[in-house]
């Protein structure tokens, strides 16, 4: 039977489409549980590597793992060092597909298994509602069936090619030639698993020697980075860092594979006595990735710090968390909203302090908010610009949160997001209250003959804001309720104290400011402080 090139191409296309269907099904069925595991069990780089290996082997998609990792880095859930561990581990996890195919893919009649899977999968996909979980399970079976059918087409095509091929056709070129071919082909089809399937089919047909196959897989290992690098060109700084780390790691692992190609193959065939060339090439692919992980792991923290300095972060205005996390990764998205609202909280405090001419560094020096203040001070914006940025941030958070809620977030996540939206709204109300009395404060500061009142306002504001900051950052969760009561008491005492001071001036002309103005200042400051206290309650409950 003559060689049918379209059979090979069709097999490759069916295989790639099956991979896409399988990935979509797994994303629906398993990524929520995976994200919780990834968030809770990657607190060190070593654990990150292990989770990267396991998760990619289970989900069969390093790109999906990379997307979730990038979202978690953007939300502040994963540090860059731990995220790099997951990414490096994912490179080893991708070799799991090759192990499965080498073990059973060429020893069974694939059509016998593909047809039942395709029958159940296609019928389930057509007749089961897309809202039902069974629909995703049917697509999972459909994807597996397509994978087996595509692999069977490629195996059959390679079997007919061997009958017409010239012996030694793959043995007359240097290994760099085959590595470059593996790189270009993998970059074109955007799947190292597809390249591995072609290589295994050729080995099984007896037309490709082991050294050629190993060189192709070393090149394919670097070819997988093209998609990630291209996808990061217009992304955030964190996406650039992850893409650069991905490229550097795979470049090093591919160089290790090529430089040590013959010693590693000798280790596999002579020392480990692996005689089956299909197992040998899969083991080669796994080993040079493992060697790269071992080489990188001791230096992962300094490598992460080096990456942090490669690309500039955004300035102090606008949003810095929700812009880095896809709304579809709902738990990471809710954490990104949480971090964004905390940052908004600091920005409102900084703006309110500006009205009273209180230096923010006096209060924020020992808190996380000091970094926000430094970012803002570098731009030196006007008061109106700061207020406009706060309003714009609230709108961005609102639009982003609506997209998160539309992505079928869990009831707990939806409740957290709703609470955070209330917190953001209350913070903007607090800033607005101060904005409304800004000119009154200026009048009080410039025209008053008695500095006691303005100094009292400043003193009470410092006390209340320290309560707020301590509640957010330094209070034991057990004491939260008690500290909130103390905060509410302090806010009311401040209002009463200022009111008593105002009533001492029967006319108000005694300090050069109308009584109605003083009463308005006291009322708006009470509202502003109460709004911040309410917002903080929602922030603490969202932890």
Number of E-state strands: 0
Shape: elongated
Quaternary:
single chain
The helix content is over 70%
What's the SSE pattern? HHHHHHHHHHHHHHHHHHHHHHHH
Helix-strand makeup class = mainly alpha
Average pLDDT over all residues: 82
How far apart lie the N and C ends?
66 Å
User: Ranges with pLDDT <50 over ≥5 residues?
Assistant: none
Sheet with the most strands, sense and barrel status: none
**Strand share of the residues?**
under 5%
What is the C-alpha radius of gyration, as a whole number of Å? 31 Å
What is the helix tally? 24
What can be said about this structure in brief?
With 543 residues, the protein is mainly α.
Describe this entry's structure for a reader.
This protein has 543 residues and is mainly α. 78% of the residues lie in helices and 0% in strands. It contains 24 helices and no strands. The chain has helices at 5-40, 45-59, 62-74, 80-93, 96-105, 110-127, 133-164, 175-189, 192-205, 210-223, 225-231, 237-259, 261-271, 277-296, 300-308, 330-355, 360-364, 369-379, 383-406, 411-436, 438-447, 452-473, 480-503, 515-541. It is elongated and about 105 Å long. The mean pLDDT is 82.
